Prior knowledge:
The chain has ten helices and ten strands. By secondary structure, it is an alpha+beta fold. Helix 6 crosses helix 9 and helix 7 (about 175-180) packs across helix 8 (about 185-195).
Amino acid sequence: MSALAHSHRSxxxxxxxxxxxxxxxxxxxxxAMLAQGTVLFEPGAPxxxxxxxxxxxxxxxxxxxxxxxxxxxxxxxEGAVGLHRGLGDRRSFTRATxxxxxxxxVIDATRFHQAALxxxxxxxxxxxxxxxxxxxxxxxxxxxAIHDASSRLCRRLLQSAxxxxxxxxxxxQEFLSYMLGVRRTTLTLLARALQQRRAIEYTRGKIRxxxxxxxxxxxxxxxxxxxxxxxxxxxxAKA
Length: 239
């Protein structure tokens, strides 16, 4: 993989910062390769590090007392996990889990908080991104309550492809069933139906989007709502 793909600036949030501010943050950062299934935060735990994905993807999961999990947001190279820690001591409300393995830029939370105190643009970035993440969480909550599992699966696959900028998705049945709140047997049937329509190719632990137009037509409206919001935010961040 190219040096650019491994640089901190592969993350769009970091790339949006002025070079002097970004440089100050990068001096306190290190890169980490994180495997699928790695848990970064548990609900109620203090946030000790902030993670900026370069090539992987993180899921934020609400966990109930009986162990049921449901996804509220996904974060790829367009964002970061634990970013609000820059505003002061914070605890995680969700379980943050690496869903797609990759390279991540990592910074100690105290160092990041100090940088936010020194630099107004860092605080602005935190506020703007936290608002965007909240919008996505609200849309996802409505989607989970209203839309059928098939259209939600299509939305989920499209979002994952957007996050890692690839149509090859290393997603297991088990993880996807958690994300959608359905049984693995149900997920198998849904994925098989999409494969029969030639929207995807599906093998154990791997999915490839074959026909993105068909997948978008089969997804619920929530995908376009979230996608438009992200596109508008990226345009504003670059301005």
